[in-house]
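Incident review: delayed structure delivery

Summary: a single-chain prediction request sat in the queue longer than the usual turnaround. Root cause was a stuck worker, restarted by the on-call engineer. No data loss occurred. The affected request and its eventual output are reproduced below so the record is complete for anyone auditing the incident later.

Affected input:
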Amino acid sequence: MKDLSNRVAIITGSSSGVGAATARLFASLGCNVVINYNANSEGASKVAASCEELGAGKGVETLIFGGSVAEDSACQAMVQAAIDKWGRVDILVNNAGTTKFVDHENLDGLDAEDFQRIYGVNVVGCYQMTRAVNPHMQAQEDGGAIVNVASTAAVTGIGSSIAYAASKGAMVTMTLSLARVLAPKVRINAVCPGFIEGDWLRQGLGDEKYEALLESQRKHSPLGLTATPDTVADGILQFISGPQIVTGETLILDGGRHLTQTPLGRR
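Output delivered after worker restart:
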């Protein structure tokens, strides 16, 4: 899928952050986009407007869909809305995600309900969206491509909470399983960003902790960089329009930070 012109992409959780950056990038390349939100309808509307502006010369259209990927009925309806509007789905980016910020040492800070809620979005939602688009992609002559937005938490065990890290590990494992099942018509890969600059982490951590962690991440990163929504979007695009022989792969986007971390994250 070297050329995104007139293609159709569904990007879950795209009213802000990585999802929004990915929608804007795809639209600038001529791709029609479904912008999904759970609660932030205002953000979704702003992303849609910017996508249409960026793709104005290429006839880009957008579709805004509100609903949680944790609900299978919403996943099915979202895909059907894209089919009704454009007659096809070429790309799925499973970006919707949630967490609970709990220090790993605080084992009493998480309960079964927390795990179920986090897994419901991060893992089950990813599976349900993939299942919903699969028949349509399989029926298309040129198939389709899926990218799961996981996290370096999946490979380091470090993250906003143990439940979050476990859910992202499950997402990476599921990517491997699905790569075998969906081939040869559909490719599926995963990106694993590290610390992503932006409001999501700032709100979760608080200003002081966010700034301290940002400085630490840059200091210990071999490249002296942390991820941004735009750099993660670039990584997602690489799996879509890069080598078409790649499936079941994981791309770490953290400036090399994982190279300096111990499993317990104490370096």
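Verification: Residues 112-139 form the longest helix (28 residues).
Action items: add queue-age alerting; document worker restart procedure.
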